[in-house]
Amino acid sequence: MRPMCRQIFALTVASLLSLAAFPQQPRAENLPRLEEFLEVTGFDVALDSIRLSADTAPQMLGLETQAFGSEWSRLVKEVFAPEILHDMALEILDNTLSDELLSHATAFYNSDLGKRLVAVENKSHMVEEDGLKSESGDQIIEGLTGIESPRIAILQRLNGASDVEDSSVNAIQEVQVRFLMAAAAAGVIDLQMDEPDLREAIKGQQEEMRTSIRASALANAAYTYQAFSDSEVAAYAEALEDPKMQKVYALMNAVQYEIMANRFEAIAVRLSAMQPSQEL
């Protein structure tokens, strides 16, 4: 699965996730194929990487991660436990992923190119956000721009095919709202506005978000796929542009970031027992 820019909190709120509010155990006969789907597409690693975004949670509340000491690491380990994320994904996918779409995605990612792509995507997912990946990606883009390389357009096409920019703009707003409202309800912060006003305030940052997301996604793609030829990246973009793959990615993005939002809400509740209330 295409790696996300970790500073982006994305969420596709679609009717296909309405079942997520009422999870059921995946049907036993579907488990083997769903487990294979998670592994072959790299979605299992993408889910595991969600915990790496947790360090941004205190910052969204005007707090510092370091203020919690070892308690923060323990909290993240519990709330973002791999088995929890894995089971949530299986529950949703069992109700939303058709056999046709599952087979289509699995066939591509089981190809030689698909396997190689997943291998580098898995590595990229688990890179800590210490600035190295983004800086390296920026340097690659700077070099490509200097020689007027057509690769930049190919990378932009790839990002467009996976709807990085458009879905992320709405997504970051939704995750922030859900997290802040949960934190306020738990008494972690004293939120000085109601939900409609909060949404409006966050919406005012939309264009700035879009610009940041576009640049971050391009640098991320440049870093992740640097070992692939232009023709291979173009072939990947073409595969993602297929209508069936578009549906698969819309679903995977929605599942991944619904889980992220859910876990951030859980973090908000747990934070109430760890630190005094803050005014926001």
Topology:
Blueprint: H1 31-41, H2 43-48, H3 56-60, H4 70-79, H5 82-96, H6 99-109, H7 112-125, H8 132-146, H9 151-161, H10 164-185, E1 189-190, H11 195-203, H12 206-224, H13 230-241, H14 243-271, E2 278-279
Parallel strand pairs: 1-2
InterPro entries: DUF2059
Keywords: Signal
Signal peptide: 1-20
Brief rundown of the structure:
The protein has helices spanning 31-41, 43-48, 56-60, 70-79, 82-96, 99-109, 112-125, 132-146, 151-161, 164-185, 195-203, 206-224, 230-241, 243-271, and strands at residues 189-190, 278-279. The chain is mainly α and 280 residues long.
DSSP helical segment count: 14
End-to-end gap: 36 Å
Overall structural class, as computed from helix and strand content, comes to mainly alpha
Please, how many domains? 1
InterPro entries: DUF2059
Keywords: Signal
Signal peptide: 1-20
Organism: Sulfitobacter brevis
What do you see in this structure?
By secondary structure, the chain is mainly alpha-helical. It has one domain. It has 14 helices and two strands; from the N terminus they run H-H-H-H-H-H-H-H-H-H-E-H-H-H-H-E. The protein has helices spanning 31-41, 43-48, 56-60, 70-79, 82-96, 99-109, 112-125, 132-146, 151-161, 164-185, 195-203, 206-224, 230-241, 243-271, and strands at 189-190, 278-279. It has a two-stranded parallel ribbon with strand order 1-2. Helix 1 packs parallel to helix 6 (99-109) and helix 10 (164-185) crosses helix 12. The two termini are 36 Å apart. Residues 6-23 and 276-280 have low confidence and may be disordered.
